[in-house]
Q: What sequence folds into this?
């Protein structure tokens, strides 16, 4: 049974929870949950008659844990040999053609489909391998439409030339041209063997149709099925593709290139990434590489410092140039981190969206020096692939969360109306990659504690102190919804399956803060407020149990509702309530280590969860399956 981490936070007490996340011991706290909830609390007996009778005691069982989701070794579908025997048997076309010599018959005008039906014999013994859906589509389409798409007379036609041009340009979309290679038949010879020529043409026809269908699938859906990488961290629906109908459309259009290119995502972000890819490939490999592990404080010395200063000087804008240009020109070669350089570094950090603390560490190096050209190329190609998993039109309005950037944005009419810092799941409690539609805003919410947290983090305490939840502001209910005092439950009788629900009541200490924004999904992930405001000051913000904590939850709630922040504030005064979002607002809980700003400038981010490597393994496995067998 797969169990998912379903919430973003565990703790209701701001200061103590922050201390715990930092790994520092809390003075006076004796146990894990003492730290979470503020230390020991006096035992309070429930009022007589307040709860139903306690359940019968059961024997104790050994402690158990609920595991987080896992990643899979990606296994693409194997290719199958196309069963051309299922196509109609070639038919004789009449006396005139039958009486002619085979060579002459091939070059004489033929009735519609006659040349194709005669050429079918050339598929005998032909081995063409394709994805199973494509193999079926070829047989289905050509059985119903026995005629060439890509051949006219004895030569590939203009339609074929356009298709081949697009397939050969696949690299400009971050795809591999090798996946769509089709060999052109040699030019026809007037006195050549007609049977040989017919064989060449029918095999070219089938190969090109198979590779065009693969290209269209990859452009629309991506080469990789992300749900196979991990069903616990990815959830993307299939996009319908009627392949036989696609071939029918291609057989009638004279604009093949336009048709094929239209199957790619049609959004500005995809185009910006393509432009970045082209620019990276065209640039010369002349980079300044700074040690990614550099840690330098004011007064210290490092040979890496001049490299970093050179990069800052190279990218100066008018504001920084006016304030620090003279300082940089004097000290750009200094290996000593002098006091005069501290404001320069702080300004560069602030410009990059980092905390301006003046300490040069790995995140400052990453932001200012970037990664190598090879790394940036890979990240852009991963981003293009991942965008193909999403809708072609991302929608407006929409909410876009980019986990590696630790940001959440509200976008409407092509403008980023709101952008804020966000906290995402820890590496051990990763936030999933998916999209859905926002449904409700919940004011002063309850926090329904996920089973994974009950089992892994609460149960050890409850075994020795069963009344803890009663004192800490939590409600416990059985499967019928009846409240039961936690002190009446023999928690030691349960392992990985606890037959009770636990929820934290609304209040200042509630782990979800004052509101949450819901978009129902199988991961039970949502956006919400948090009492742990200090985490937003950090550059690396992967601290939650999987949900997304927002720096400005009121602003986001107002945006998705189409209301003002004052409206949200008034709703909060009314206590616990829920409001439906009446507009269609998609939300993308995304994972892009390369992503363009609204102006089209591509920014790069650290791979927090190591997912790029998982995607690369899937791409490599797919390329291996698609490689020619001979």
A:
């Amino acid at each position: 049974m797969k169990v998912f981490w379903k919430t973003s936070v565990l703790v209701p007490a701001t200061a103590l929870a922050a201390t715990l996340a930092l790994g520092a011991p809390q003075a006076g706290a004796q146990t894990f949950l003492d730290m979470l909830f503020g230390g020991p609390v006096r035992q309070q007996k429930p009022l007589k008659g307040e709860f139903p009778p306690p359940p019968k005691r059961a024997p104790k069982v050994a402690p158990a844990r609920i595991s987080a989701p896992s990643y899979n070794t990606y296994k693409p579908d194997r290719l199958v040999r196309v069963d051309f025997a299922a196509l109609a048997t070639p038919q004789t076309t009449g006396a005139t053609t039958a009486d002619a010599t085979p060579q002459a018959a091939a070059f004489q005008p033929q009735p519609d489909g006659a040349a194709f039906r005669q050429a079918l014999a050339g598929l005998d013994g032909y081995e063409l391998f394709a994805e199973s859906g494509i193999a079926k589509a070829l047989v289905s389409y050509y059985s119903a439409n026995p005629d060439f798409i890509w051949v006219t007379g004895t030569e590939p036609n203009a339609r074929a030339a356009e298709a081949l041009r697009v397939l050969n340009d696949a690299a400009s979309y971050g795809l591999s041209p090798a996946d769509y290679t089709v060999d052109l038949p040699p030019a026809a010879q007037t006195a050549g063997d007609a049977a040989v020529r017919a064989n060449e043409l029918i095999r070219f026809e089938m190969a090109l149709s198979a590779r065009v269908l693969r290209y269209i699938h990859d452009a629309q859906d991506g080469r990789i099925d992300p749900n196979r990488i991990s069903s616990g961290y990815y959830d993307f629906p299939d996009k319908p593709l009627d392949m036989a109908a696609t071939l029918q459309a291609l057989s009638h259009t004279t604009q093949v290139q336009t048709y094929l290119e239209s199957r790619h995502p049609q959004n500005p972000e995809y185009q910006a990434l393509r432009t970045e890819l082209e620019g990276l490939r065209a640039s010369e490999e002349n980079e300044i590489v700074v040690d990614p592990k550099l840690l330098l404080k004011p007064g210290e010395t490092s040979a890496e410092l001049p490299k970093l200063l050179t990069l800052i000087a190279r990218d100066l804008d008018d504001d920084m140039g006016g304030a620090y240009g003279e300082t940089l020109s004097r000290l750009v070669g200094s290996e000593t981190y002098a006091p005069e350089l501290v404001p320069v570094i702080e300004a560069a950090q602030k410009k990059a969206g980092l905390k301006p603390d003046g300490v040069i560490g790995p995140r400052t190096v990453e932001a200012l020096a970037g990664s190598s050209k090879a790394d940036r190329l890979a990240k852009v190609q991963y981003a293009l692939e991942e965008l193909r998993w999403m809708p072609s039109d991302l929608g407006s309005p929409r909410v876009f969360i980019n986990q590696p950037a630790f940001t959440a944005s509200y976008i409407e009419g092509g403008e980023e109306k709101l952008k804020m810092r966000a906290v995402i799941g820890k590496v051990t409690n990763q936030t999933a990659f998916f999209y859905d539609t926002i449904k409700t805003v919940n004011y002063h919410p309850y926090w329904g504690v996920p089973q994974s947290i009950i089992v892994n983090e609460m149960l050890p305490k409850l075994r020795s102190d069963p009344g803890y939840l009663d004192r800490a502001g939590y409600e416990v209910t059985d499967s019928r919804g009846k409240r039961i005092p936690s002190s009446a439950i023999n928690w030691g009788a349960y392992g990985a399956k606890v037959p009770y629900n636990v929820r934290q009541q609304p209040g200042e200490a509630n782990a979800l803060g004052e509101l949450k924004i819901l978009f129902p999904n199988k991961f039970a992930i949502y956006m919400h407020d948090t009492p742990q405001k200090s985490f937003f000051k950090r550059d690396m913000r992967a601290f939650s149990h999987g949900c997304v904590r927002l720096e400005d939850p009121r602003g986001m709630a107002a945006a998705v509702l189409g209301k003002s922040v004052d409206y949200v504030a008034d709703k909060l005064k009314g206590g616990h309530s829920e409001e439906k979002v009446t507009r269609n607002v998609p939300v993308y809980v995304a994972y892009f280590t390369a992503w363009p700003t609204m102006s089209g400038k591509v920014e790069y981010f650290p791979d927090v969860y190591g997912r790029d490597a998982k995607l690369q393994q899937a791409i490599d496995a797919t390329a291996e399956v698609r490689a020619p067998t001979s």
Summary: DSSP finds 22 helices and 21 strands in the chain.
